[in-house]
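Tokens as discussed.
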């Protein structure tokens, strides 16, 4: 199927698949026998019949004019007909399961579903949601926010989290999950350090996450400090550590820190703390118990000499960057011209959130949507839903082209 945007046209009933009540963008489609496009080819009589069925079976939830007033229930007015038909049949044949919808369509024929889909597509679109009030708080760039919040950390932990002070750990190269867990351990007293506890006490959960993200995205480098131990001797002893901390100290487990390039004095001090019990961790207590001071120094020297590696951490996309990706399939500002692709513009924000969460958790199946939504944070979902709910929805009229090679009247 090839689509050609024809622009804004005044269309006669004889040439259109259905005629919306408002001026509509016209899109030409090639005729064909494809069952999935049947809803595009209906007549005005069939649209009227679809309206009667919709009022009886659908209006209680989706509104008299396809504009929902119920939380979590989508607007159907001016949605793309072929998409609606496809989803209605998915409910009827249990490819999608939802109690109310399954019950509503169970006794409707495929022909009736086509007409209902075309009816809703023919209605005027809903109005966009109101924009947020001026002065309402908006989310800042989390990386920049993390950099700002981390400004006070540089004096001890070095610029960009690369330590230049013996005994002070580098913060670069740590997985955000580990970083957050460590900060929370200082807050809760599981890690004993009065200075650290006082410094992190005022950090909110959001600020902690932002700082963790900022350091995780910095270019990793070795601590700019000297190591006193024997790195060659430490390499042999490090074989027992690789199961948790990874080959050459680069961990593949977010819960276990990478120690490649870490300050040697800090590593040795941490091992001693695990050995004497002043720092608690059951997985570290046993390995540290068998080490003497020299072995600790050698291990620390070995790991300090290793090159830390970049983390597989994604810089969050802005809402503008997300919408640019979404618009590739769903049309400019969420106004799809593809019959089988839903319009997002002016849809209920709570419904859009619900759908994106369903794709994120694989409760709703789509390879493309699962891949896209898996990268979204909860905040991304909320902001995307709010963005598309505020966009103006455009109706679309599909113009059926004559078959290739057909004679035209002169």
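Sequence:
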């Amino acid at each position: 199927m090839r689509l050609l945007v024809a622009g804004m046209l005044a269309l006669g009933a004889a040439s259109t698949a259905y005629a919306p009540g408002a001026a509509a963008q016209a899109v030409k489609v090639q005729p064909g026998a494809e069952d999935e496009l049947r809803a595009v080819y209906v007549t005005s009589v069939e649209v009227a019949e679809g309206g009667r069925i919709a009022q009886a079976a659908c209006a209680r939830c989706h509104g008299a004019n396809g504009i929902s007033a119920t939380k979590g229930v989508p607007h159907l007015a001016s949605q793309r007909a072929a998409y609606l038909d496809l989803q209605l049949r998915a409910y009827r044949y249990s490819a999608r399961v939802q109690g109310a919808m399954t019950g509503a369509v169970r006794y409707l024929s495929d022909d009736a579903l086509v007409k209902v889909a075309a009816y809703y597509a023919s209605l005027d679109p809903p109005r966009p949601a109101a924009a947020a009030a001026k002065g309402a708080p908006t989310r800042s760039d989390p990386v920049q926010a993390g950099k700002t919040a981390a400004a006070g950390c540089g004096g001890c932990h070095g610029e960009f989290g690369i330590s230049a002070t013996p005994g002070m750990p580098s913060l670069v190269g740590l997985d955000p999950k580990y970083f957050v867990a460590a900060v929370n351990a200082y807050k809760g007293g599981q890690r004993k350090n009065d200075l650290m506890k006082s410094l992190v006490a005022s950090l909110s959960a959001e600020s902690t996450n932002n700082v963790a993200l900022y350091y995780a995205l910095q270019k990793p480098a070795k601590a700019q400090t000297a190591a006193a131990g024997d790195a060659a001797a430490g390499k042999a002893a490090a074989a027992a550590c690789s199961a948790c901390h990874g080959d050459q100290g680069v961990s593949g487990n977010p819960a276990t820190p990478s120690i490649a390039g870490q300050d040697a004095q800090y590593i040795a001090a941490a091992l001693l703390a695990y050995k004497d019990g002043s720092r608690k961790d059951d997985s570290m207590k046993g390995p540290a118990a068998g080490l003497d001071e020299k072995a600790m120094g050698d291990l620390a020297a070995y790991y300090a000499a290793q090159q830390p590696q970049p983390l597989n951490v994604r810089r969050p996309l802005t809402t503008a960057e997300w919408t640019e990706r979404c618009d590739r399939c769903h049309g400019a500002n969420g106004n799809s011209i593809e019959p089988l692709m839903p319009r997002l513009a002016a849809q209920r924000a709570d419904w859009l959130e619900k759908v994106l969460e369903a794709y994120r958790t694989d409760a709703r199946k789509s390879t493309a949507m699962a891949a896209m939504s898996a990268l979204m944070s909860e905040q991304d979902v909320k902001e995307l839903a709010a963005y598309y709910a505020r966009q103006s929805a455009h109706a679309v009229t599909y113009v059926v082209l004559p078959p290739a090679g057909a004679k035209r009247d002169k």
